[in-house]
Prior knowledge:
binds phosphoric acid mono(formamide)ester; 36% helix
Amino acid sequence: MQWQRKHLLTIRELSAEEIVAVLDTAASFKEVSSRQIKKVPALRGKTVVNFFLEPSTRTRVSFELAAKRLSADVINISASASSITKGETLKDTAKNIEALNADFIILRHSAPGSAKFLADRLHASIINAGDGSHEHPTQALLDVFTIREKLGRVKGLNVLILGDILFSRVARSNIWALTKLGANVTLVGPSTLVPKEFEEMGVRISYKLDEELEKADVINLLRIQHERQRKAFFPSIGEYTSIFGLTQKRFERTKPDVLIMHPGPMNRGVEIANEVADGTRSVVLEQVTNGLATRMAVLYLTNNAQVGLKAPEVPAAKEVAQT
Length: 323
Ligand code: CP
C-alpha cells in the first residue's frame, strides 16, 4: 500500500494497512543500525527540528538519531531554551522555525491537539511526539513492532495494559494500534484511572489484576502520571503497588513466554518490581532500540509523501540502503 501522509498526528486516523507499512519499513531500517556505517542518504538536505516542550529522554534522542541516520540536519529546541519562556506563542515559535526552512517539526507538548494545531497552520511535516494525555503515535508503533518481532503476530494476542490509563497518551495510541491489528486488549487499573468510557474503544476493562495474569500474552505497564493528575486517584503508592504492581510473585503466575513491556520512564518498586523489569521476559530496552528503526520509518515515509514521491510498498533492506 502507498503511504500518503505528510504528518503523523494520531494512530486513531491510521488504517491497519498504514500501520503495517510503518512496521515493515521499520524492519528494513533495523538492519541499517547493525551495519558498520549506520547511515543512509534518504533525508539528505532536509532539516528536522526536535521541538520538545515537555521532558523526554527516549523519544527525543531516538528522533535525533533517526534523523541523523537518514542524513538530515537536526536542531533540538527545548522549552527552557526557547523564547516560549518570554511569552512567545506556540504558533509564532513554530512559524519562526519554519521560516528557517524546517522540513519536519517533531513536537512534544502538554496540550492535547497541539500537533494537529501546527499541522493546520504550517507547511512542514508535523510528527506528534506526545500531546498531553491524547496520543503518542510513534510509541504505539514501536510497541506493536516489538510485539510482532518477538511473538510473530499481533492478531489474536491478549494484551493487558496496566496502570494509569486515564492520563496516558501511550495507552490511547496503543489501544488504537492493537485493536486495529486484531489484538484483544484488556485495561487494568484502579477504577478512578480506568473509566468505563474506554470500552467504547473496543477493549475489555478489569479492576482485578490477579484474575487477568494467566491469560496475558503481553503485559504493558504504565507509570502513574503524577504530572497530569490534579487530585489523588488512589489512597497511596503503597496501596497501588499492593493491588496493581507487577511484583515477582505476580509475574510467576504469567505465561512462560509473556512479554513484559514498559514505555519508560519506569517507577521501579511501584508499577514494576526490579526483578521483573530486569528479567528475561522484559523487552523494555528492546522497545527503545526498536524506537529508532520505527522513527526512521516514520520520517522516511512522511518525507516521501511530502515531496510527492510514491513510497515503496515494503522496501527491502538493500533498497533502503541504496535510497
Ligand atoms: N516513552 C517515552 O515517551 O519516553 P520519554 O518521555 O523519555 O520520551
